[in-house]
Amino acid sequence: MQRACAAALLAKGTTIIQNPGHSNDDKAALDIIQRLGAKVTEENGEWKVESGGVDPVADEIDCGESGLSIRMFTPLVALSDKEITINGSGSLVTRPMDFFDEILPRLDVKVKSNEGKLPLIVQGPLVPKNIEVDGSLSSQFLTGLLLAYAAADAKDVSIKVNDLKSKPYIDLTLDVMKQFGFKIPVNKNYEEFYFDGRTHNSELITHNYTVEGDWSGGAFLLVAGAIAGPILVSGLDMASAQADKAIIDALMAANAGMAIEAKGIRLVPTEMNAFDFDATDCPDLFPPLVALAAYCKGKTRIKGVSRLAHKESNRAITLQDEFDMMGVTIDLEDDMMIVHGGKGVKGADVQSHHDHRIAMACAVAALKADSEMVIDNAEAVSKSYPDFYDHLQQLGAHVSLSNKLKFHE
After folding, report:
1. pLDDT tens, position by position, 97-108
2. For a tag on the chain, would you pick the N or C end, based on fewer CB atoms within 10 A?
């Protein structure tokens, strides 16, 4: 949804965004593109975006708590010659933004930051050049640069990337660019993205883009089904480029009761075993994977812990602390997380740490806990999946909504 908003801003003409999301992150993206010059109206549950490209009508944008928005839209803001302040809230104000201080000046963009943190003050216009970037912290910076280079009609230049993580997210970005008719760079094994001067953006006037079902949110429903089903989850594209589709591999490795049907993915509870999984390219799966591993007999080993430090919370420590409250031991050894599962989950008072995925992981773990689970700051799910608790209630979970959220079987 956020990539579609960015592409609709850059695409000259009219875009109809079908099956739109309505999370806080999605709302932030819609607000940003309007501040950057797009006209946005809602028609029959779809969003109509009319844009002539980046032409700011405000001197500030607010990315809320969205890490993707701040990293993707900052290079797009830099396409303009106007000075724009970029701000955010919550954990976003503490996340490192040194990347922009280092890279954007190489592209003739003026940047001022608060010692590598928000707010950022950016003034372009961005000029595509040959650059080399570090891809180890996040692929989201590269997503923004790829979109900006395409919008600036980059010719015979390349972006070299060292140690790119989360490659599937770049596949998703390239897929969106292709659907919007943008110039697609030559992908040289994710180590270099070359914009050939002989190719041009297509001149599509009207775009229709259907937002895929979200595998990041869907992963929690799938794990919920494996723990406490039966359920059928529909609307997830098995051919998707989304990284978090890998939850299917983890469920299969855990011997979950799962069947992929024409109508969707069906899950039934069954005895599950510990599994090994590499989440380096899909770090957002750590919370649902931990909830799954809590119900798998033995020691589950999940690789990629280094990717968790700069999320809404330090998720490795947060997961360890909150699941310890539930009687589930988690060891952290270098880049490996080891979850000791299959010994039952205890009801407890837990804390989301204002992290949407931690709140959802605790809720899913609560579905077969031995007593009530109380989740403080449970409303954090609105960041990415505002309907989450409603959907769990539809599936038969007992959810009491108050200042604290209570779950019982």
Report:
1. 888 999 999 999
2. C
